[in-house]
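Quality-control log, excerpt.
Job 1 of 2 completed; input and output follow.
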Amino acid sequence: MAIFDRAIVRLLPAVPRPLVQKLSERYIAGPELKDAREAVRRINREGKLATIDVLGEEITTEEEAAAIVRAYQDVFADIQRCGLDSNVSVKLTGLGLKLGYEICRDNLRVVVEDAASRGNFVRIDMEDSSTTDDTLRLYRELRADGHENVGIVLQAMLRRTTTDIADIGDLEPSVRLCKGIYVEPPEVAYQEYEAVRAAFVRALEALLEAGSYVGIATHDRWLLDEGRRLVAEHGLEREEYEFQMLLGVRPLLGDELVSEGHRLRIYVPFGRHWYAYSLRRLQENPRIAGYIAADTLGRLVGRRNGI
């Protein structure tokens, strides 16, 4: 399967843009806020929570970063006005991290304060390892300023993650734990599939032991089983943890979790930068590319056979 996944990824740049759009439409809400709104409404009707992400990591000017801030303010207003059960997730490069730490800090503070004024929550995404120190520093600064409506993401594949868990343990952080999708060198990140899985379980155990609220973010059935086992062993109530998945990826697994009574949050990206996001995410995570290709092929064959 890994060979198939990588083959799909190598072909992506040659795939016509309209076809990429067709393939990605299940996995990205659409280009506009109204598209995210309707996706979240559908998700909420299914008994699931949501987190909305405004696409736009490749910003190059302060004006573009400010536009992302305004887009998030529009999202918060829409969530409140429509009574949606959703928070947001932000990428610091979209808020100007590569333009300057202070620029990003000021933009992030605006987003977090606007969320707080509406009773909402901001999850700070973790990007490649070049941003990890600044991301954790910004999170600590916000918490030191009294902002409780903010959480962080940690990537199990990074060798430093268990140390980072210990370093922020005093904050009792809300953490989304994921495997990680960025291509990193061996000295920075575990490379082998089973090593990443094992690191995920160690990190989850450490977070739960520290009393953190954890969003267990994975589509890996084995890790989902481990997550269920660990939350049961810690005697956690339904409101004390959640599972998280990407929009359109392995939805039957998500339905299974909900039917068992677990909270499930779906990550809903939207925006006009959908094409760059689609290519980058599929290239960074060949396994997701394989899921999408297999699912799409299955649906096409199903239609042809009248299923």
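Job 2 of 2 completed; input and output follow.
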Amino acid sequence: MTERVLIIDDEENIRHMIRLTLEAAGYEVGEAADGIEAFAILGGDSAWNVVLLDQRLPLMEGTEVLRRINVLAPSARVVMMTAFASVELAVEAMKLGANDFLRKPMTPEVVRNSIAAALRKVSDPQTEVESQIDLRNQAHSRIVTLNGFTILPESDDARALPQRPNERRFLVRKPDGREQEVVVEISEEAFREAEKRFRNATIHEGFWTSQAETFLSDFIWNDGNVPAGGKLILKGVDRDVIEKMKEEKRRHE
């Protein structure tokens, strides 16, 4: 049976490009220019396997359209697209049930890989619906797929990876299902900057783990791939995060 993909984007040229890409790969493709048009399509026929959803749409934003899609077509996998986003917005979209988050402009390969990865996650429809509901109920979830790549949550395998004090190791699942270890090395410059900004306050291990994960997420978001050599070097710290932590500490003193 041919898988069906519905494209929701207000830019006709982008819909046309994606349609050609997916039809060449053997998918049946539908189009909608905004959420209202998409609701009419899904209301009359909810049997779409994947929905490619732009974040910036007329009338309502993509995240609001996503909430309605969860009701109209709960078994469909939703892949968000945007040229104006951040990892934080991707996290929010995942909490609402999105399966992946693509950065525009996307290459045909990225589009095909993301659709293929989304379809691989579909097994029993009822089980998939229940798992999506569970995900939306877990407000603390940080499991995010960007451009088809997923940074896996800590598992027994991840904990068993050898790790130096200045390294954080992650397992990343690629769009083809293969997993790769990625090492984020924390440089001496980053350690010194954090110590200077924290002014001798205790810097917990979790801070560096969070910094390393954010750095890796940003790399995948911007580059659309994992680092070629499987290694990144963190040379600075997120000053906004430090300021938020200092403010949080002041509130509890």
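Post-run check on job 2. The longest strand covers residues 179-186.
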